[in-house]
Amino acid sequence: MTEADDTGDYARHNARMARVAAAREKMQARRTLERGLLIVHTGNGKGKSSSAFGMAIRSIGWGLKVAILQYVKGKWETGERNFFEAHPDLATFEVMGEGFTWDTQDRALDITAARAAWERSKQMILDPTIDFVILDELNIVLRDDTLPIAEIVAFLKERPLTKHICITGRTAKPELLEIADLITDFTEVRHPYKAGFKAQRGVEY
Amino acid sequence: MTEADDTGDYARHNARMARVAAAREKMQARRTLERGLLIVHTGNGKGKSSSAFGMAIRSIGWGLKVAILQYVKGKWETGERNFFEAHPDLATFEVMGEGFTWDTQDRALDITAARAAWERSKQMILDPTIDFVILDELNIVLRDDTLPIAEIVAFLKERPLTKHICITGRTAKPELLEIADLITDFTEVRHPYKAGFKAQRGVEY
């Protein structure tokens, strides 16, 4: 694939790439469906939330309207929060969580906070002016059964198909994965935590 | 973990969370290192580039200076390009590629374009005013040996440790993985391509 051929040029490589291009074009032509996707970012690796924020940027770049709701990180200063609060014209950005369950140490409060966040999420999903809804760390709340998975799945099944929804968090429930259109498992291969690094601004938060 | 105990409240859950919090604090205290990380996003799943853009947003939110160089997507209109070109104050954003190798069908051009992009990448990495450098799809160019991996790895090993570098692309070379601090494998679990969906704005580009 990579070497010049005997004549010293890349004629064979270039001809092969022309065949690849033709095959790809044929494959793309078979892909015609277009509608709002239910996207799930899960797994133990780094990048689930940041990838959702990157899709927000892409969507804003196309003139789409984006709403982001963070379920857990409500009390923290994060880079994404600083960014979107400094640029309120770019997207709707709301933080509603009270911290991880070991931060609050108060399950009744966790349940109240999650319920309020879910009610707000439903408004965002039903709002016809919003094209892309990101529910950051909802999987964490579902894993702990702080919200009932059956209720959330029933609502998502009936969602308007005019918008994308992205749900993040490391342990997605099987019931959610079952109805998702796009699932990426973010798999940790190497993490600087294990080499003694602390979480760093811009990377982890 | 999730049910109220016999007394009808969550006292046992809450006490357990207090113990979890103490254990986590002890663990965090052992993580003291802080320096620029070499981050690699690889794997066949969706989200490698968008996760890098999300880290850009986080970094900008902390007042860090970000530079993004795209190796492959030079000829395309993308959401990220639209976004950063509309907001040039937010980050340095440059596109230098000529398209995938099956688009150009011209290996000599691929090599020239990749070389120019790498020379620019080195400037960004050596620029003391830049805190975070994203080299989008560099792995693609390295996989095809359009640039020599040994040269790139030698330079990265000697990089200034005052900044983060994130390299994306589905097939990272083992030589690069060996020197990386943070590696996530984006693993495809389900992709709408396979159900006949075309690539959609805001999600894939």
From TrEMBL, chains A, B:
Recorded superkingdom: Bacteria
Keyword Thylakoid: no
Enzyme class (EC, first level): transferase
Pfam families: CobA_CobO_BtuR (PF02572)
Gene3D superfamilies given in the database record: P-loop containing nucleotide triphosphate hydrolases
InterPro entries according to UniProt: CblAdoTrfase_CobA, P-loop_NTPase
Compartment(s) where it occurs, according to its Swiss-Prot or TrEMBL record: Cytoplasm
Cytoplasm as UniProt keyword: yes
Coiled coil: none
Family assignment from sequence similarity: Belongs to the Cob(I)alamin adenosyltransferase family.
Biological role: Required for both de novo synthesis of the corrin ring for the assimilation of exogenous corrinoids. Participates in the adenosylation of a variety of incomplete and complete corrinoids.
Protein name: Corrinoid adenosyltransferase
Organism for this UniProt entry: Sphingomonas insulae
